[in-house]
Amino acid sequence: MQEEFLSLEIIWKDEHMVELEITACNKYFKGITQVYDQAECIYELAEQLIGFSGISETLFYESGKKDSYAYFSLKFYPVGTNGLIGVQINLEENVTTAFRPEEKSKLILEIIIEPSALDEFQKFLKTMAVKQSGKAQLVGRNGFKIHLIT
């Protein structure tokens, strides 16, 4: 069984934007894409995650444009009444579709996380956004750990 995780890594930057490589994996599927975003947007996501309990709220974040060049989205939501949080991850390949929309690879998967994992991930995202470098990883409940590599 694969480890479930979400990884965001800044692989390039200039004065106006950063390029993120996003890797997501659950028990059965794994996908990777790259999208352009702004460090300020990553910082805002980190701020929105402060105190997110997932009890009755949903949080949505996206980067890029759906069915365009590259796209990535996250949706955080409650799973049952035991405090677990679901993370739905939507990835689209970073290529243009010159002829048919079907030629573009797309993946939607879910990982389940503990609230404490989300709290740590939030801190690492904030650091990554400020430094405009590094890698933040959120690992699902089947292998709870979080990393920031700078």
- Low-pLDDT stretches: 144-148
Measured by DSSP, the beta-strand proportion falls in 35-45%
What is the CATH C level class, in words?
Answer: Mainly Beta
Question: On the 0-100 scale, what is the average pLDDT?
Answer: 90
How far apart lie the N and C ends?
28 Å
CATH topology-level fold name:
Transcriptional Co-activator pc4, Chain A
CATH architectural name = Roll
Biggest beta-sheet profile: 5 strands, antiparallel
Secondary structure tally: strands: 9
Question: Number of domains in the coordinates?
Answer: 1
- Enumerate how many helices there are, as a single number: 2
Descriptive terms for the model:
Transcriptional Co-activator pc4, Chain A, alpha+beta, 2 helices, five-stranded antiparallel beta sheet, 19% helix, 150 residues, four-stranded antiparallel beta sheet
